Amino acid sequence: MEWEAVVYGPVKSRRLGRSLGINLTPLELKVCNFSCGYCRVGVPSKGNVTAQEFEEYGWTPEQVKDCITMGLQSHNRENTSIDYITIAGNGEPTLYPWLENIVNHLLLERNRILAGKPTAIFTNATTVNQENMRNAIYKVDRRFFKLDAGDEKTFRRINVPIGATYKEVVENLLTLDNYELSVAVTSGDVSNYDSFFNAEFTQNLRKMRFTRLFIYDIDIPKTVSPRFNKKTEKERLDELAEHLRRETNKEVIVLWEPTPRESNIPLYPQQIN
After folding, report:
1. Which of 10, 122, 133, 233 is least enclosed, having the fewest CB within 10 Å?
2. What's residue 225's pLDDT?
């Protein structure tokens, strides 16, 4: 396979600047145990993919590592402006069976080819109870976990999980420290806004040991469902941020920027993290 299937971008990241992406999912699939209605990948999720299936698609760890090396070398030759190297892509990266092997290789090649560039990973926290996945996640410089709902009912409407529950995600987050939490706020026909004011949600946030919390609107006109195309007003995000700061006494950052509704924002691989 071409290395561009694994190493893409750099793309604009609202948290990380110019982010060089690492994708661990075959382009024909979306391997994720969530099927979020706002996901910009634009295809249904395939939640359970075996190691054998990854191999059948040609995504063995050896091939992925070769692509990472070639991609980093190419961007080094081109002197590409890069702020972060980010494991994200068109799926949930921790469902890739050999993630720790890939992270080890990425860090070695980063040190050799793009020394000094920090690394990050975006994940949904469903697999951190597995020791190998937890080890891999904590080897990168920054780790971002998502929590897009304040209760189980809203979680199922927004994230449409495959074999995961809201309780499990929250319990996993409560076992962690030194991470950053991301909350996507949806508006329109399917809104999760009110759920973030639930007493149980704020109580759980107080117990979590994250370093900062990001809240942001789903600013993606082109999504799987038009129900998620309504932009959340900045005033509502500010109101929620102030509430969460007051309730948790933690740093809360609002990510919002105007985007014309008619803009043709492309789908993967031009993802905005």
Report:
1. 233
2. 58
